Amino acid sequence: MDRQRQKRVLIAGGGVAGLEAALALRHLAEDRVHVEILAPEPHFWYRPMAVATPFELGDVLRLELDALTREIGVDYTPGGLVGVDAWRHIAHTSKNTQLEYDLLLIASGAFPMPAIRGALTFRGPADIDLIESLLRDLAGGGVGSVAFVIPWGAGYSLPAYELALLTSAHIDRLGLHGFEVSLVTPEEEPLQVFGPQASEAIHALFSERGIALRTGAYPSEVVDGALQLIPEGVVVADRVVALARLTGAPIDGIPQTVDGFVPVDAHCRVHGVADVYAAGDITSFTVKQGGIATQQADAAAEAIAEAVGVDLEPARFRPVLRGVLLTGTRPRYLRRELALEPAVEPIASLEPLWWPPAKIVGRHLAPFLASIAGAEAPPTLPAGEHGAVEIERVLDPDATADLDASRLLLADAGDDEPRVEAVMAHAAVSVAPEDTLGEVAERLLGSDVRVAVVGEYGRIVGVLTSGDLLRASAARAHPAEARVREWMTAEPLTVSGDTPVSAAKLLMQQYDIDQLPVLDGELVVGVVDRVRVDQVPVLTPGLGF
Fold first, then answer.
1. Is the peptide bond before 356 cis (omega within 30 degrees of 0)?
2. Residues 6 or more apart from 466 whose CB is under 8 A from it?
3. What's the sign of the alpha-carbon dihedral 52, 56, 58, 60?
4. Gyration radius of the chain's alpha carbons
5. Gap between the Cα atoms of 506 and 28, Å rounded
6. Angle at 272 between CA 267 and CA 275, to 5 degrees
7. Neighbours of 237 (CB within 10 A)
8. What residues does 184 pair with on adjacent strands?
9. Which DSSP symbol is given to 209?
10. Cβ(314)–Cβ(305) under 8 Å?
11. Are strands 451-456 and 489-490 parallel, antiparallel or unpaired?
12. Rounded to 5 degrees, what angle do the CA atoms 466, 467, 469 make?
């Protein structure tokens, strides 16, 4: 096809989701599209094996992105996505350049940030040396106990369980005695995202290895050799190793949550922004995992293929969670369909449930990487084997409501505890997603509040703060053209009027925000800000487990 007639598809991100989408588009759309990958790093990292490398059980695979994109048949441009002009179909990059596109897929991933002050943070390949140093201290007798910690917030808990199990197995190999390993998590059950079978497997493995487990615990910081928990309690350990908390980088012109994630629909289209899609960790989907990222990338690729004229009915995002749990002995293969009525119940098996039996399961990416590594062609799996035949189900949002502990839970308080309704501002500025920033600024100037509540079809979908308006101004967004949806904080944190003031204060502190909309059901009845709650004396933090 003539290059002039090809649709320009820009994929922002060279990680798992980005490469899966590029492979899928080459397969689905062929010469209908010209695909360009924009990525800030020149390498692709196969990150899941980072937990195994310190124990000499595997290596982190690093591949040149330029070579990979040539093999796939797409272009590679260095740089990161920092802003989008959806009206003009222009992407702004960290290299201070502009890239035109017809369709944009945001697959820029998430950034691992330290979550527990005073703890060692394990982010992946960059922190292999940290675990190796811990093992040396352990062998030298300088460390008698270690706690592996899963923080609240967006992330993926499985690596913490692997680190605990692999460390315990390492201790046994060294013949050490009296060494204590523990794991602390806000989950109600261990590895609850994978279902009860995985939780039972963890309980059995931890009991066998003598690993202490503390669930339903929100870690805060490490002080004087003790991990402090919210609202109370401590875990004593010589070393505390915490997983990172994931956040999304700001992208001007794109709606993002308070954590920086991008809301998408079932076809991975960004809400309210034409010709823009998102997949992988950058989306607001609850579970952050490579296999889930590839499934989102496939859904986005099918929607994009249809948009450029391919005759197909794009499938909805149908998440099936698969994970390999490294234990120090035989791994466990975990599988769960994230639907209210799954076709197959969750599985925890000693036998592989997919091929290649890799950490990251992608329809196109896994075979592609296996071919690069020289793996043999997959065997034919019997149709009756659990997990061999995938019968997918459409995701029901209720099915993921309890899958992780990404947000703090508010607790009930005593009758004497002050409530938000007593200190909130009853006047709220309500705006629509398609209102211009100039219109909202005028309304906020005449109000006592500093946040506009964004409503759509009778429900709150975002908030727009004075800080958001300043950010848009700094990006030179035209106040008469830029829309609320492009700059708002999507899926905002909210409280009810009956919420304890202490809980509202804690939410604002932990999420570093200054205002919270107050709801009665789905109706916005006011706004509470940090200045008002700071003026109210409170007795105890309002946090629940």
1. yes
2. 444, 450, 451
3. positive
4. 24
5. 48
6. 60
7. 24
8. 149, 214
9. H
10. yes
11. unpaired
12. 65
pLDDT one digit per residue (tens) for the chain, 545 residues: 556 689 999 999 999 999 999 999 999 999 999 999 999 999 998 888 889 999 988 888 889 999 999 999 999 999 999 999 999 999 999 999 999 999 999 999 999 999 999 999 999 999 999 999 999 999 998 899 999 999 998 989 999 999 999 999 999 999 888 899 999 999 999 999 999 999 999 999 999 999 999 999 999 999 988 999 987 899 999 999 999 999 999 999 999 999 999 999 999 999 889 999 999 999 999 899 999 999 999 999 999 999 999 999 999 998 999 999 999 999 999 999 987 778 889 999 999 988 777 788 888 998 888 887 665 544 443 333 333 333 233 334 444 444 545 555 555 555 678 899 998 887 788 999 999 999 999 998 878 778 999 999 889 999 998 889 998 998 889 999 999 999 999 999 999 999 998 888 888 888 888 889 999 988 999 999 888 888 777 554 444 43
Tokens found for residue 443: 């309304």
Phi, psi of 68, rounded to the nearest 5 degrees: -65, -45
Token pair, residue 233, equals: 């309690």
| Burial class of residue 521 in the structure, from the number of CB atoms within 10 Å of its CB (0-12 exposed, 13-18 middle, 19+ buried) | exposed
Give the type of residue at 311: D
Which residues pair with residue 239 across a beta bridge?
A: 146
Residue tagged 């675990």 (tokens): 131
Tokens of 296: 């989102």
Q: Could you tell me the pTM of the whole model?
A: 0.89
Locate 393 and state its tokens: 């189900």
> Residues 6 or more apart from 295 whose CB is under 8 A from it?
317, 318, 319, 320
Looking at the DSSP bridge assignments, the partners of residue 99 are: 91
Q: Which residue bears the tokens 């960059």?
A: 126
Residue 244 is encoded by which pair of tokens?
């990172």
Q: Which two tokens stand for residue 266?
A: 């079932």
User: What sign has the CA pseudo-torsion 65, 66, 70, 73?
Assistant: positive
- Asked if 143 contacts 174 with a C-beta cutoff of 8 angstroms, the reply is no
HSE (side-chain half, CA atoms, 13 Å) at 494: 23
Structure tokens at 65: 């992105």
- Listing DSSP states for 470-494 in one string gives HHHHHTT--TTT-BHHHHSEES---
The full DSSP string for 387-430 is TTS----PPPGGGGTTS---SPEEPP--TTS-BGGGTSBS--EE
Contacts of residue 386, defined as CB under 8 A and 6 or more positions apart, other chains included, come to 335, 344, 347, 349, 353
